[in-house]
Amino acid sequence: MSGNSLVLPIVLWGRTAPTHCISSLLVMDDLATIITGCHDGQICIWDMTSDLEVNPRAMLFGHTASITCLSKASPCSDKQYIVSASESGEMCLWDVNDGRCIEFTKLACAHTGIQFYQFTIGTQREGRLLCNGHYPEILVVDATSLEVLYSLVSKISPDWISSMSIIHSHRTQEDTVVAVSVTGILKVWIITQDVNRMQDLDPVFEEESKPIYCGGCQSISFCTFTQLSLLVVCSKYWRVFDAGDYSLLCSVPSENDQSWTGGDFIAADKIIIWTEDGCSYIYKLPASCLPASEHFRTDVGKTAEGSIPPLVYSIADRTDKQLLICPPVTRFFYGRREPFHKLLVQGDSAGRLTLWSIPDTSPLQPLSTLQVSSTISLQEAFDKLAPLSAGIIDQLSVTPGSEEPIKVTASVYIPSQGRLVCGREDGSIILVPATQTAIVQLLQGEHMLRRGWPPHRTLRGHRNKVTCLLYPHQVSPRYDQRSLVSGGVDFSVIVWDIFTGEMKHVFCVHGGEITQILVPPENCSNRVQHCVCSVASDHSVGLLSLRERKCIMLASRHLFPIQAIKWRPCDDYLVVGCSDGSVYVWQMDTGETHTDKRDSRGNLQKYSNNSLVVQAMKTNLTDPDMHVLFFDVESVIIQLLTEEAQRPNPTLVSPETLQKAQGAADKGGSFLANKIFKQVKETMKETIKEHLLDEDEEEEEEMRRREEKSKSLSLLEYNLTMDTAKLFMSCLHAWGLNGPLDEVCLSRLGMLKPHCPISFGLISRGGHMSLMLPTFKESLLRQMALSTGRKLSLSEMVGKGTYGVSRAVTTQHLLSVISLANTLMGMTNATFVGEHMKKAPVRPPRPGTPETPKKTAAPPQVSSPAVQGQIKQGNYKRLFSLGAVLGEPLMYRAVCVCVCVCWSQLAAMHCVMLPDLLGLDKFRPPLLEMLARRWQDRCLEVREAAQALLLAELRRIGQSGRKDTIDLWAPYLPQYVDQVSSRKSTCGCGAGCGGPGVGFIFYSQPQSVIFYSQPLTSVSHILQPTSVSHIL
Known about the structure:
Helices cover 23% and strands 29% of the residues. By secondary structure, the chain is of the alpha+beta class.
């Protein structure tokens, strides 16, 4: 799929929650959102209510290593941005509201701590990120572009920084950065206005360097209540310093060999300290540490170890808790706006969040234990769902006497056949039509009454869990398209014939479970090209020949687990990288010289159906597979138009007939009609040329025999493209807002209503992805209950909640549903019911061969560009005259017009009527910048949908909204004005809106978008494509 394509993910999580071993956490300032990062690289977004009820909403994918730190990256609440960093040096800027990746970069160093710093230059407020980690300086990074601006460097004893804190001064314009190195030396940098304006890499040296003998510093915190104290927590003691001259005020050692991991001020006279085993303690500071006390600084210079201040609270003693695989992460946060909670938040390796609300008053009895305010884990949230979250083949995996379905442990999708192959933990392999099994899990219909639906095939051969699957022909056409390769825990690699279900061969050459099966590159020797490479847990690598059915090489001398396989075909080398950093180079003993065999017939594959891709994912190797369905809208449109142009019909044999019909109906025609007409002519030419070139009759006969042989295994005869469009449109439609239109969609268009709100996803920059967890519906139910004043059921929320999640999700969904509806409106009788849904349309019969008998049950399907042109223009009256010219029956013409009207109503509802039907308080409007990027999209249907949506949204927000948009984009626009005069203040949008409104003018050299508002006297801003991409 192209990186610029419009791709929408839908995820089927299954009943088992993903592993989420929490490594860092963050609570947003409004105390409404909690962010957690895990050791596997994912980020989870949790919603929190004012009553401290927590519910997981979405999971973000993009990092390839453990998340080391999280920080907010924006000061305002309307744009909630966070930044994350991983062990591999990756940094990502995320939008918390919709999970979009705004910016990402990768540095050569790993950060262990990030703090957001905001300052003012003139009237403009900017943000910086101060980063410390495994390097001897503090990097200052721009919070918007993630670009390193300058660094804070040490002259004296430079070393890695353990922790740092920013001291904001209200008396002066200077802020102070205080940090402690790993050797216990305190460093101080002064940030002035001149430093803030720095945009180069000149280093800023420290103002003060003082040894405080705090080796192994875990955290350093500044007291915001008094602004006169610093808390430094080390593993074996914690200390309080004066923030003025950094004098030691108090030092307390740990008890019972506890290891402190952090702490913070919860009041002017109280601090909270937590340990690596999850326990936390609240201490009351002595009078010598309180600036308001007359005894302040009385113990400076004579503080002795061992004086322990009184303990106020003991929190979260984990003696009775389950054994955790890594220490929990604990942080303290307090709200800066209502509700003003003081929260202690803890996340552990089981994916559990635990919250304590810290009271302002001291308990009546000392050493009281603070009770947990709220606790929840990902798995508990999954278990509370009703109905439970569905997996991709749950209906086929429930065994008698067991409530839990058999877990899917390996998957591979075959786009050319539309089949999904799933290996399970009991050793069986299921072959099932992907769209049909997704429809069963997501949509309502008569299939719910059928047991064992859809038709499937079960392959049995492994004695235990299937660990990996490979369809080699999908990677390279040199492999037989009948071969499927599977590996299991039973040390075996099995080759299957997917057309007959026969087990062709079993390789038993490894001494451990199979972890990977790979395909060698194209330029290997002829013998290796027909092999697959298998990797096992016993640190062995094998080359298994599918043609010879034997192992031609087994490399089994590796001492550590294998992490990477590389190829050097020109030297016949196989390179193996292990986890200890060692590299082994093996000679592939082929016994043959390299030959390059190519297909000499010159027949290229016409079209690869990538409109739907099913990808299995897991957050951890121990997890079962979850499945993400990626719908490529552009590919769906192309496939629909291609099949429409290839429909067999006698009227298509004579292009002159179509040309005359087009001229009789409308000499001008429409652009889409001309486009489809040209496609029809080109398709016919290519078909004739292909058949003339194809002279290998014996190979054709062999292929025909194979097809007949494999017919018995045909799981289901259905139109894959129309089935994909049916699934996609049924999931995207806003059900429940327009009752009559819903009934039309169900009865006439053949769409199906979802069981419950669907977990959509969003793909953003660099392939980063956010996926809604199935528990997001709980947060939506709570929000919609507050807006409507009553509790809604899941059936009422289906469709309504889709367009109330975020603006980016709304934009993607509206673009998809409108462009697909317009495409289907331009097709002939494009409904999801009828005979055409059972079998894909075939090409016209080959010249010189007898024609197949015609079915009389269904009327002929006519694909006329003239008809499509009138449909596109909404001129339904002239369709009857066109149909008469083309020889269509009167009843058939009426049916086509009715179907076109239905698709037109569906497109109009989503384009114009949705804000009013849903309510402005629940509707998240589309993002103008995302629509502007699609204004000249390469796909005509997506382009038209984007233009219609953008103009409708600009009219909806009015002149004041358009002015706010221009003001918002002004910093990113070029600094010149192009004066364009106009005779009158009329709308130039070109959409026939008839009002003054806002308009766009496109120049060819260079391409620019010009915004203007009434009265139109001059063009005030010019937006170039590079400027748009800059702000995204």
